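Recall from the previous lesson that a structure prediction takes nothing but the amino acid sequence as input. Here we apply that procedure to G domain-containing protein from Cyclopterus lumpus. The sequence below is the only information supplied.
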Amino acid sequence: MGSNSSQPEPQPPPQVVHRFTPPPSLCFDEPWRRIDWGDKQSALQYVKDYNPPTEGQQIRILLHGPVGAGKSSFINSVQSVLQGRMCIKTLVSTSQSCFTKRYMTYEFEKKSLDSFYPFVINDMMGLKDGSFRNQRVHVKDIKRALKGHILDGYRFNPESKLSKEDPYYNPSPGVNDKVHVLVSVIDANTVSQLEDKVVKAIWAIREEASELGIPQVAIFTKIDELCPEIQKDVRNVYKSKILKKAMQRFSEEVGIPMNCIFAVWNYHEDISLSNDNDALILSALTSIMNAGGDFLNTVRE
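The prediction returns the following tokens.
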């Protein structure tokens, strides 16, 4: 007799479960630098009340950096924060061409007071590979600016340094004519693409400042274009992994320590102020002022 055992029924193939793996986060869980976002007024009051070590002194801040990095926009942003409204103190180019042609000093008038803040900012034409065929001449002019020998209105010439016979040469600079803080302004998006000649020029300028004992810091601009999480919420700025990596790379390339590099979101498209953007600008400004004050204290001693 044949077997009556039944054949096992065929089983359906196992289902493949596709699990979605989210992309790695662009932000750290915790910020790697603290900003007191909710207390802009305290930082603003600190700037308003600040006094240099000696009465009548001014902290002179010299901005330099590649073309289009945002030096002029930073000056306008500082003025806007201090005045509590959008201001245009210096003209800004919307292209990568250099708009600033001359050595200029900008003062900042106190709101509703017939007086000025005890710091000034100097702007100069930007660095660009090919713009300064004779880099050595340009660096010599920067050295003269650091020492206070260059007067407002001087047009930098890549072919020849400022001569002592030039009407823009200051033969006897006082303490207020000299630079007290050197600030490199860098487009955060271009750190990995900085031209070799620009990096060498920044190094050369830093070396001149170091010989004079002048403190040096850097400002990263256009951070909203660098990281989508910052563009979404500026409070992610010091959580951003992308920004931290860019700062570390720049620090290694030019030798400026990480704690001397600051991020700002300049006002260039906005028509109204943001408390969070103001907080970043004030954080950078107070650090720059403190560095200049410390340098003046050293000179005085």
